[in-house]
Design goal:
Elements (H helix, E strand, L loop, with lengths): L1 H83 E4 L5 E4 L18 H16 L37
Antiparallel strand pairs: 1-2
Length: about 170
């Protein structure tokens, strides 16, 4: 009996050990499966992040290219307009076209027209000279108004002080 009991206890211990090994193996496999799933999810997240960074980089490059091309176009237009026109000096300065020698058809000669304001000033000066006036009359609205002068009151200093402010 003793032999049977020992054999039975050894058998039960062996079964318990086998069950423990099986359970630990199953648990280890479950942990490995969970770790593999986590690795797959992190790889997917990294893939999405890499795609987002690629799109962001492309959009940034395209934006920079658009800004550079806009600046180049603006500078080209300004340079071309400065090349075709020049600043005319004088009191009535303005931008005017310069004549280029590359034009195939020569332009007809246009007589220079004086400034209309200058023509009016000259006409008025000639009219005053014709009438014999040395200087044009000043219009009524530009003349200085003459205000009547108020009489100044004379005060005698009765107490002998020479205080002109009356303080004393």
């Amino acid at each position: 009996m003793k032999n049977k009991f020992t054999l039975l206890s050894v058998g039960l211990v062996a079964v318990a050990v086998i069950v423990l090994i099986a359970v630990s193996t199953i648990m280890s496999s479950a942990a490995q499966i969970a770790a593999a799933k986590a690795a797959i999810e992190s790889a997917r997240a990294a893939q999405v992040a890499a795609g987002g960074q690629a799109v962001s980089g492309v959009l940034l490059t395209l934006t920079l290219l658009a800004v550079v091309l806009t600046w180049l176009a603006a500078l080209t237009i300004i340079a071309y307009s400065l090349y075709k026109r020049r600043w005319a000096p004088g009191p009535n300065a303005y931008w005017r076209r310069t004549e280029t020698q590359r034009t195939a058809v020569p332009r007809p000669a246009v007589p220079q027209q004086p400034d209309p304001l200058q023509q009016l000033v000259q006409l008025e000066m000639l009219r005053y000279l014709r009438n014999g006036q040395k200087q044009p009359p000043v219009p009524q609205y530009l003349q200085q108004p003459t205000w009547p002068r108020l009489p100044v009151e004379q005060h005698d200093d009765h107490d002998g002080d020479d205080d002109e402010w009356g303080l004393g």
